[in-house]
Amino acid sequence: MSEDEEHLWYYCVSDGSVRQGKDARGLDRMGPYPDRATAERALQIAAERNKAADEADADWNN
After folding, report:
1. Sign of CA dihedral 9, 17, 25, 41
2. Closest to 22 (Cα-Cα) out of 2, 41, 47
3. Is-contact 42 30, C-beta < 8 A?
4. Angle at 20 between CA 1 and CA 52, to 5 degrees
5. pLDDT tens digit string along 5-54?
6. What is the C-alpha separation between 55 and 16, in angstroms, rounded?
7. Distance (Å, whole) CA 25 – CA 31
8. pLDDT of res. 26
9. What is the 3-state secondary structure (H, E, C) of the chain?
10. d(C-alpha 62, C-alpha 47), whole Å
11. What is the pLDDT, as a whole number, of residue 59?
12. Which residues pair with 19 in a beta bridge?
């Protein structure tokens, strides 16, 4: 793991923890995020992005 990757933050979907570095299995990780606070919001960020994508799809189909 490079030095930069060690400073990035990840959200672990299997247990809801926030971790610095790639400690969790790849399939269990969301991220990377630049800081802990952003990683803690990973599920909210994903929900916001999904909503925006769904709205873009609806606009495209109309």
Report:
1. negative
2. 2
3. yes
4. 105
5. 778 999 999 999 999 998 878 889 999 999 999 999 999 999 999 999 99
6. 28
7. 12
8. 80
9. CCHHHHCCEEEECCCCCEEECCCCCHHHEEEEECCHHHHHCHHHHHHHHHHHHHHHHHHHHC
10. 23
11. 84
12. 10
Amino acid identity, residue 53?
A: A
The amino acid sitting at 42 is A
Specify the residue for token string 């299995």.
25
The span from the CA of 45 to the CA of 62, in Å, is 26
Whether the predicted pLDDT of 2 surpasses 80: no
End-to-end CA distance of the chain: 46
Residue type, 16: G
